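In response to reviewer comment 3 from the previous cycle, which asked for concrete evidence that the modeling workflow produces usable outputs, we include below a single protein chain processed end to end. The sequence was submitted unchanged, and the resulting structure tokens are shown without manual editing.
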Amino acid sequence: MASHETPNSRVAKAFNAMNDLGISHDEVKPVLQKLLKLHDENWEYIEEDNYQTLVDAYFEHKEDKESKDKRKALISHHDGERQTQPLANKDDVLFLTTNNSRQKFTMEENEMPPSSSEVLTRNHHIKLVSSLYLDLNSVINSAHNNNPTSSKATIDIASSALGEVKIFLNCDHALENNANILTNGPQQAIAQDEKLFHFLSDITKGSEKVKISLIDEYGKGELPNFNYMPHNLIYQSANVNISLARIADEGYCSNCSGNCLSQSLPCACAQETGGEFAYTLQGLLKDEFLTSCMSMKKEPQTHQLVYCQECPLERSKNECMPEQCKGHLIRKFIKECWRKCGCDMQCGNRIVQRGLRCKLQVFFTSDKKGWGLRTLEDLPKGSFICEYVGEILTNMELHERIMHKNGNDKHTYPVTLDADWGSEVVLKDEEALCLDATYNGNVARFINHRCSDANLMDIPVEVETPDRHYYHLAFFTNKKVNVYEELTWDYGIDFDDHDHPIKAFQCCCESPFCRDKKRKGQLNNLSI
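The workflow returned the following structure tokens.
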């Protein structure tokens, strides 16, 4: 937070942040006052991670206020009359509390159990906290689970014929016992076995510098089945020749030291980018470079397209009689410094290779769109998000894989690495590469398509090889993106290309510039 802000403006921002969570100013004020006193007016501690400390302190305060006695209960309501039943001594009721801790409540034989409203309030807090992306790792102790598909944390609700509702907390390999709470009340309409939410604290299995959580507040999505990997890997036949000997002396900046961006003249790597650095000293993509890339993709000029004599894409569809090439856009590249360069790893021209650093979350968007990706922090324009990671396949391998896939498998949209196909007259199959993240990939596989006005821009980045048949595809924000906003990317789909191995799907982007919607409107007008 900027140091020039006044205390009053900081208080207002804290109130507004909590108000977004449904917490009033009057409830927050005493908690905020205590925190400021406790931390000697240190606002930075309170403001970090979107007021995480304040949120935790509020719920801790609320828990202390609402329940100081230990309780254990089986609650039932019949004809509006409250009744209690004793539980076996070993049956502990486990509540997930909003301060990310476990609390077991026991009660004496004649002690009154918590009311239905208290239990429902706690359940509401559980869902609220999960929606606010609080890390439940300290609750479920699932840090050692390396299989995202089996380390799910769920809350299941089942209703009986008598109107009882049973709530199960299930954390595979995480909690020693299931938590069962029996209660009656207004949740009778909930369908049997409906799941309130799924929550995974880190789908990366610790392979990224930051954790990436996954959440489904409504329990409607089937947990994705794939292997997370942070770097591209060759599947079988792809030719990716990464060799120090192949990088000529003029292809790297051997005489640089420290941070190349601090030099008065662009280094040798920057010359490959177009004579200047693509990044600012703040680690953002330069606005003019980003604007040029966006303009080229949205409205490509004739001179920016290249047509293969024998197109690998068409050849993969019909090897005997391939159709004519439909054209490929010759893209602008970023050339980053690499291991052979003299500068250090903190050089400002090493952004993509240092990996993912943003706070991201995979979430279930809707039945139509499925899973998506959103940011858990505000992102300025030009921020690096992640690269598209997957298996490196030849286009022939991709086509065969899709043709032989099971009917129930949902294929992610692949990336064709065709940004520099104009450098060759005829590409061999092992040189015509693509990326497929269906079975092995990173978080980018969850980025949904949006026509024309997506908030991410994909840009080719050359790092470890001068051979542009293979490159990294990096995503940068093309506008300011607010916290909790979904991250989207224009796949560049031709909705009229029904021969594409991934069939042109019914677009659900809901953009006012949706090309699929516009195309259907034109078709309807023609039919009339």
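Residues 68-195 have pLDDT under 50 and may be disordered. We consider this sufficient to address the reviewer's concern, and the full set will be provided in the supplementary archive.
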